[in-house]
Amino acid sequence: MPLARAGDIELNYERSGSGPPLLLIMGMSGTMHHWGEPLLEDLRRDFEVIVYDHRDAGDSTRTGAPFTIVDLAGDAAGLLHALEIDSAYVMGISMGGMIAQELVLAHPELLRGLVLGCTYCGGEGSALASEGVMRRLAEGMTSGDRERAIRTGWEVNVSARFAANEEVYAKFLQTGLSHGLPVTVIMEQMRAIAAHDTSERLFQIHTPTLVIHGTADELLPVQNGRMIAERIPGSRLEILDGVGHMFFLEEPQRSAELVREHAAVNA
Predict the structure, then answer these.
(1) Residue 231 and residue 251: Cα distance in Å, rounded?
(2) Which domain range does residue 108 map to?
(3) CB-CB contact of 118 with 219 (8 Å)
(4) Which of 114, 173, 237, 261 has the fewest beta carbons under 10 Å from its own?
(5) Mapping DSSP to helix (H, G, I), strand (E, B) and coil, where does residue 212 land?
(6) In whole angstroms, what is the distance from residue 89 CA to residue 152 CA?
(7) What's the CATH code of the domain at 231?
């Protein structure tokens, strides 16, 4: 896959589909391969879909240095500039949604519309995963058993109902085995997330914004989505009942349709 220079690093990316550009920003521990083909296939019908690997992830530059969410937002802006895209629709999920918040605050001219999925803004009233969930994830990651770590991540990231879908899990497992990130990189991403706080700046966002969150999200509880929507003027909130953190895997067609509707209204 091609590499694009964003400042001092190179980002591995892929462009596919036809239509206005749509930049997808992945969350913690994920790569471009973690979006799932059902979502991407649906989106390609109406958008030129751009996916990429963050710094220190996938085939992008391995810096080995600390970074912040602001740094990752700068990478996203650099990628759009490198691809000569004046403005794009942007969808960020989880950590990617935090990156998208900093991106729109720093470079509002680059965004035609914004979708923030299963994400977090920091500040009073927001909530990260419970101690129990974090303990389960930590035990899985440090067990030395990659399949156990992936299974634990799967069970935490989706609803209990969807976790029982062994066919979809088999694909998730293969993606994790082929494209999983080193624990050291995931820990650095976690440190960046812990320092993220846009809560007092969200009122500055005037880009049309759609917020999506599942009620069964164990990693970033649904109160985060409600809080973000309340603080971004004119934003729309879509709550997915009984759906977990990775709503785009559980409900790929519905997720694509929400993005499509949002773009159509704000074309």
Answers:
(1) 26
(2) 3-265
(3) yes
(4) 261
(5) strand
(6) 32
(7) 3.40.50.1820
